[in-house]
Amino acid sequence: MNLTAEQKKTVLASFLGWTLDAFDFFLLTFLLTDIASEFQTDVPAVSKALFLTLAMRFIGAFFFGMLADKYGRKPILMLNIVSYSVIGALAAFSPSLGIFLALRALFGIAMGGEWGLGSSLAMESVPPSARGFISGILQCGYPAGYLLAAVVYGLLYQQTIGGYTIGWRAMFLLSFIPALIVLFIRSHVPESPAFVEAQRTARPGMLETLRKHWGIALYAVVLMMFFNFFSHGTQDLYPTFLKKQHGFDPHTVSWITIVANIGAIVGGLAFGALSEKIGRVNAITLACLIALPSIPLWAYSSTPFMLAVGAFAMQVAVQGAWGVIPVHLNELSPGAVRATLPGFIYQAGNLAASYGGPYQAGIAEAPGGSYGYALALFAGVVAICIIVVIRFSPERRGQVMTVLDHEVSRV
């Protein structure tokens, strides 16, 4: 895989944007119990912040995507990163649960734009033969962000520095960090070549394009609903499961989560690259099949070591399937709306799956329930659903990407 220096910088910027976006999101998953304690409520009430963030992401995907299809991937990606950085940090100053939830909803709008912008910029900039591996790299930004949140939580949370004990509010102030990426993007990242070329030619509008391709768009939203149940259903409440059901301390929770996300990165890279050889659909199917035998170890083990082994295996499967999604959605999407449609489809699926966190928490805390049962139920059912649904997907591996509506297949 030979990439130019500019292509490498583009991939790096897209990766970092998604990594730090995920970092901001997953900080919350480690702090649910502490926020609930301060606002004198329970975990299901605070977990509505997860629901609101996920539910509002489709608005950001549509808004920022439309801007990027009109004004370019690069400047709107910069605007998007600054937006989610500032709003994420403002959560540190929430005087009440209501204000906190409102800020997380706004954060969801900002977070929703990044994936579509970064993936379209990268996929339109690299050679077709490199897309599968680059797709895995980009999607690994999500578990990398989760891993970073786990490391920061383990190292800093409840530590005393200069007489001040770091609590949940100080953790959210770290959300300012992603804004620094904008300086790198402005100085080193070029605009998408496909977007630049398209400025010389009239392009069809969003509604016209969707009318021609409504079937694949609707199918992809259903697929992404199951994918978002798969990822968030195995990730968001896992730290709470480790703390509440097993009583582990922050250090233990941190290292188990780190191991899980190392597995996620391994899975994303491996299956992204594998999809270039066996196809996008087959790679996703194989990854989901691996999830099923991982469930007992992941959800029902009793020792930290065995839980970590199970978490590693589960996230190899989950993010292995996800590692194919950036390239698959971009290959399925018409060029004229590639900055808008993949991100919008992704986040519309998120909207459909957005109540999964509170629903899981409700199952876990109901009489006779447990977090292990709630996690296992979601993972098993959704893995099977993805295996069934993905078999109906078109396979467009190797398609030459332009921003005009005449992409050419090289499969």
Automatic annotation (TrEMBL):
Keywords: Membrane, Transmembrane, Transmembrane helix
Keyword Transmembrane helix part of the UniProt annotation: yes
PROSITE patterns registered for this protein in UniProt: MFS, SUGAR_TRANSPORT_2
Membrane protein topology class: Multi-pass membrane protein
Primary location: membrane
Highest taxon, organism lineage: Bacteria
Transmembrane segments: 12-33, 45-64, 76-93, 133-154, 166-185, 213-233, 253-274, 281-299, 305-327, 371-392
One of the Pfam families matching this protein, by short name: MFS_1
Major facilitator superfamily (MFS) profile domain location: 10-397
Subcellular localization(s) per the UniProt record: Membrane
Entries under InterPro entries matching the protein: MFS, MFS_dom, MFS_sugar_transport-like, MFS_trans_sf, Sugar_transporter_CS
PANTHER family: CARBOXYLIC ACID TRANSPORTER PROTEIN HOMOLOG
Protein name, UniProt field: MFS transporter
